Fold:
Amino acid sequence: MLEKIKDKVTRQIIRLTVMVQNEKGNLPTFATIAGLTFVAVMLILAGYEILKIFFPDFLNGMLNVIKQKFTIQ
Structure:
């Protein structure tokens, strides 16, 4: 699951890079978006790691609830 998130974020950053290269001159906007995206992803990963280390049962329960909500029956 974590690998899928990393892949999606990587694709999004590549897409943003291509958009900025095509725009030319929009670098501050790109830097802001990329920086905020990076910070958000790092906070999510840090939260995941903290839950995984200190509260593994809670994390597993939470992930099971998420899977149930998004599973088509």
Q: What stands out?
A: The chain has one domain: 2-70.
